[in-house]
């Protein structure tokens, strides 16, 4: 599942992890991304200590390590993948892209971080990875929009499972227990507070954030890559 930050990606990970037949992997490239970019993210030192910073080793873990359940859900952040990196390692996976309106992403991100730019939110990177993976796999991956999930999680997830050719255990994917998981990344202390209190997907809030200045300009610039994928999305 290829997402950017602040995009219900952790709630969706909860949904899949609550299935009896699925294990999850939480942002496996985060430490490699921080080491590569030198960015000072919250929990940086803990992340670097708890994950490998070697992209090749992460790929080896994702493609060679045994999986403890019939399905594995990988929560991947598009901005963690450096430009120019080959995606051939992912050729045998089924891919899905989780998108969200850029203005909503930016407004939510600014609640957790002091500054923002195009690279940080991964929307343009998402569109580029979509093209790469489409070329490798020979067909476009599934696309879902977080707003569609929140408006009708039952039907959207049912349609997604159909597209991925897996069963849809409704009672497992629509609700889950509160609390932290052992599978959560160490960064949960900063990012996962709301999800830890949740028992299901949040309410859909159709209001558009009131952005100004450079933040509004960024949201407008990200409309093109967002709309490119939005046109292809699975609908409820």
UniProtKB/TrEMBL annotation:
Gene3D superfamilies, sorted: P-loop containing nucleotide triphosphate hydrolases
Q: Which domain of life is it from?
A: Bacteria
Record Pfam families: Sulfotransfer_5
Q: Which family does it belong to?
A: Belongs to the class-IV pyridoxal-phosphate-dependent aminotransferase family.
Protein name according to UniProt: Sulfotransferase family protein
């Amino acid at each position: 599942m290829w997402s950017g930050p602040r995009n219900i990606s952790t709630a969706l990970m909860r949904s899949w992890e609550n299935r009896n037949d699925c294990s999850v992997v939480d942002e496996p490239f985060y430490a490699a991304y921080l080491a590569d970019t030198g960015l000072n993210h919250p929990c940086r030192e803990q992340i670097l200590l708890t994950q490998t910073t070697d992209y090749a080793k992460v790929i080896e873990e994702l493609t060679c390590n045994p999986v403890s359940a019939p399905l594995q859900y990988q929560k991947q952040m598009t901005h963690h993948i450096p430009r120019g990196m080959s995606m051939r390692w992912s050729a045998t996976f089924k891919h899905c892209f989780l998108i969200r309106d850029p203005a909503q992403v930016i407004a939510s991100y600014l609640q957790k971080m002091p500054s923002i730019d195009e690279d940080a939110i991964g929307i343009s990177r998402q569109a580029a990875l979509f093209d790469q993976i489409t070329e490798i796999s020979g067909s476009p991956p599934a696309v879902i929009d977080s707003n569609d999930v929140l408006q009708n999680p039952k039907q959207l997830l049912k349609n997604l499972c159909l597209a991925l050719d897996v069963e849809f255990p409704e009672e497992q994917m629509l609700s889950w227990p509160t609390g932290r998981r052992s599978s959560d990344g160490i960064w949960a202390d900063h990012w996962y507070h709301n999800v830890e209190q949740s028992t299901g997907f949040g309410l859909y809030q159709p209001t558009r954030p009131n952005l100004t200045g450079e933040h509004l300009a960024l949201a407008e610039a990200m409309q093109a890559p967002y709309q490119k994928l939005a046109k292809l999305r699975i609908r409820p």
